[in-house]
Amino acid sequence: MNILAVETSTERCSVSLATLTTEIENHVIAPRGQATLVIKMAEEMLKQCDLKKSDLNAVAFGSGPGSFNGIRVAASFAHGVAMAQNINIVPCSTLHALAMTPNFTTSRNVLVISDARQSEVYWSCVRLSAEGQIDEIVVENKVTKPSDVSVPKEAKWCVVSSKWTYYEEFLPSYIKILPRITCDYPSALPIAKFARHSLQRKKEFSPIEAMPVYLRSPIR
To answer: Domains in the chain and their CATH numbers?
Structure first.
């Protein structure tokens, strides 16, 4: 199964390709011009693996939350490839992609927090399977003040976060002391793995389901 994945919800433009024998990823920091860049990066990656678009079985993308324009770039690219090649399309929450990043978690119960600007954060709570895939979404993607972040207290949680320094002081005290790993940006490789996991279990997404996740109006 050959799966191409893209993630452009932040300043990082990330492209990944997962095949039966290879998992590769490339990324660059590009606050602008991602629409053109993601096409070029994808073409280069396919060429690197001696593949063509017609060899793809699925395309996946980071569906947000995140940058309004960035999410739209990834979604437009993925829908274009899916329609042109008549292949499966798989959306993956940007927050959940962070949760599934290998070696990021110390527990299967993961609180993911990301900077949403405007003094707010995006966050979600998930449980991971033994394979590191999303097993259960405990709290759906939200955008709130940092002080409103919460987790169910009957389980042990760890935190995967981006841009932690900015909003740490505003989080509830019991969230601050949870074990955590901080990263800068989400990437496309966990999204490719999520797509493969979903399709292997016969989970398919219609184009209507594969829509960007916008939790609020665009930031001007």
So the answer is: 3-93+186-200 (3.30.420.40), 95-183 (3.30.420.40)
